[in-house]
Structures are given as C-alpha cells and as structure tokens.
Amino acid sequence: MLQPVWEREGSPVNVGRTHRIVPRRTRRLIEDRDRGCTYPGCLTIHHLECHHVTHWADGGPTDMTNLISLCPHHHDRHHTGDYTIHPDPEHPGRFRFATRHGHPIEPLAAPPPPDTAPPPRYTGPTNEILHLDQVRFHRRGSGPLRQ
To answer: Given this model, what pLDDT does residue 102 score?
Structure first.
C-alpha cells in the first residue's frame, strides 16, 4: 500500500499542535530517519514509539523536529526522569541525551577490530600436535565409549 507524503517547499507537512497522536505518514518518516531507538547504544529496531522531545503537555508540536524514536524501555525511563533529551543545534533532527544530573550519555566505544592473524596453536608441553581424530575417551572403570 502506498501512502502519499504531503510536502511544502520540499519539507514534509507537520501537524503542529492540531494532533497529539503522530500520524502514520509522519511516524514512517521518523522511523526512517532514526533507524531504531535513538538512545545511545540501544540496538532496538522494532516496536518503537514516537516521543515528543518537548512534551505535548508543555506545548511541544507534533513535528519531525520534535519527534524521536525510542524503544518502550527507554521511553518509560525518560518519563520517569532517568535522563533528558535535547535537540542538537549543530545537527537538525539529531538529539543529545544526558543523565538526570546533566552528564552526557554517549554510545559505548566500538570494540577494537579482531586480530587478523590466527591464534597461535597450542603445541602442548612437549611441542607435539594434538590430533583429535586419534583421541579415544574412556569412562573411569569402563571400556571405550561407543560412537
């Protein structure tokens, strides 16, 4: 099913304060922009909720510049006051997260790339190679195990 997106001068039409509920066309644009929960380090990409950065009750519009995708867990944590969200003035459509004490929340650093060299082979205390195809295991007090 195709759904049109109404534009004015190349920008999607926002609904401002006329609706608190995010229209489906706007939700799709927000989800396409955010590509998952926007909380730093969260990898959730399904069951997202659109959140008003400036809350509707505080006069926030239902516009793309005021909406953000959050997973239910991080959405609830925000509403309980665990962290705050503020627009990033340097990057429109992006947001900054901070703890309730004002400390920035940043995504975790990426792990270092794995070494390309194979791990060293364990040669044993006598420098002999262990050939697993030649190993037979026995239970204590019994004969060989059946395969």
So the answer is: 93
